[in-house]
Amino acid sequence: MSGLVTRRGLLVGTSGLLLSGCDRLSESPGFRSLLTEAEALHQRSQRLIGGHEPLAREFSSADVSPVFRPNGNRGVGGADYERHAAENFANWTLTVDGLVARPLALPLAAIQALPQRRQITRHDCVEGWSAIGVWQGPQLAHILKLAGLLPRARYLVFHCADRFDTRPYYESIDLLDAFHPQTILAWRMNDAALPVANGAPLRLRVERQLGYKHAKFVQRIEARASLAGLYGGKGGYWEDVGDYAWYAGI
Amino acid sequence: MTAAAEPTEPQSGDRVRRHRLSTRLWHWLNAVTLAVMLMSGLTIFNAHPRLYWGEYGANFDKAWLEIGAIRGEGVLRVGAVTIRTTGLLGVSQGADGAERHKAFPHWATIPSYYDLAIGRRWHLAFAWVLSLSLAFYLIWSLVNGHLRRDIHITRREWRPAHVWHDIKEHARLRFPKGAAALRYGVLQKLAYAGVLFGLLPLVIVTGLGMAPGVDAAWPWVTAIWGGRQSARSLHFLAAFGLLGFFAVHLVMVLLSGPLNQLRGMITGWYRLPR
């Protein structure tokens, strides 16, 4: 029995050493940047095998999840947003600015009047769960053509109405994803108005990436040449705060 | 040719060349990589400790496996069976001694504290090491004849009587002596082939099948398993299959002369058992 305890102690001790080593590596900037190198490898390899700009798989109505789990901020709060919600977002305006020839201020009704795309896709959370839902809205490409992207524009930043404590949520994508046919600004989910918990009135859908890229409560789209100098500089709330990967195709 | 056919057959007690350099290098690289993959994988699992079948699955859907805490008690539920697992799964003691409500305990995860982003950084970087080293090893083992000479199971070895004989020898812990110890037994070949051509490719392809970018580019990688959540379930099962292989592998090494085996896998030299 005592032999067993000693052996167990030895095992736990050894694994403890190994673990504290791994923790120290996790926090060492050099090793972290080495691990982060893999992100570029994921992006390049996925863009290589997806050179034909494939569509994410689309499903049938029979495949839709009975309940689409909301995640992240399930509301925005504040008198302003409450008022918008009470008005069914009739006075919600989407601003499109930054490196564009014609800055836009689009009321929700104008967005609803644009040509629409309806798609049934699977939403994959970074945590591991998935939900299938029906999404509808105009293609982002259409809105970007209305605004006229300037040649220097490389990224689209989505500024959201929700906050974590004092930090506003934001996300960003590059032009390949921005002009992808399935990248839409959804205002309908499961053939009804987009619920507040899922990001009303406007939510980005970037179907080939994980859920945290799909910005909710979108207020403003900003075209930029670089992500540096914006909040934490990593292109998104979770990227800045938790070191989540900016390219979330895996 | 096989050692047995040579005129000067090595005898019990002889020092012989056992493992090729490529096998030794891959073995140790793979040992470290698998440890990192399993432990960082458990961090990722801790983010959502439920498994489903099909394309979708989230908190409101039916999970076939779930680890959690009910009234401060750790539980593992598989189908209709619920097991109390306090101390190990669901509820365990953290490194600081405090009670921790996570599926897998701190000593089994990388990092030892819960951080999904860092766990993913480790897991997805080492996934390249796992996949590329396996690909190179398999190609090289095909070229140098390792697969044909050492892993390939001959028609004679497939005979039920032969397999049964090997099972009985294993059960009695009677391992081959002398020159016969230079060759893998049929159970050993099955285990190694099962890992090289079964569990490792399965764990890699089901892992790829969970990536939305891969699903879009190559939908079959996800669809062949019956959907993303099925791929995730199979990924988890394959990982524990590999852990099971590791446990049996470790026991067999300990029973068959651990120092000699360890030397064989480090230096390549092995003393034939008497």
Give a structural overview.
- The complex is a heterodimer of chains A (about 250) and B (about 270).
- Chain A is α+β, with helices and mostly antiparallel strands and about 250 residues long.
- Chain A folds into two domains: about 1-45; about 55-240, Oxidoreductase, molybdopterin-binding domain (Sulfite Oxidase, Chain A, domain 2, Alpha-Beta Complex), CATH 3.90.420.10.
- Helices cover about 30% and strands about 25% of the residues of chain A.
- A five-stranded mixed β-sheet of chain A has the order 2-1-11-5-6.
- Chain A starts with a helix and ends in an 8-residue tail after the last helix.
- The relative contact order of chain A is 0.16.
- The mean pLDDT of chain A is about 95.
- Chain B has about 270 residues and is an alpha+beta fold.
- Chain B has two domains: about 5-20 and about 145-270, no CATH class; about 50-105, no CATH class.
- In chain B, about 55% of the residues lie in helices and about 10% in strands.
- Chain B has ten helices and eight strands.
- A four-stranded antiparallel β-sheet of chain B has the order 2-3-4-5. In chain B, strands 1-8 form a two-stranded antiparallel ribbon.
- In chain B, strand 6 and strand 7 (about 100) form a beta hairpin.
- Classes of the chains: A alpha+beta (about 250), B alpha+beta (about 270).
- Chains A and B meet through helix 1, helix 2 and strand 4 of A and helix 1, helix 2, helix 7 and helix 9 of B.
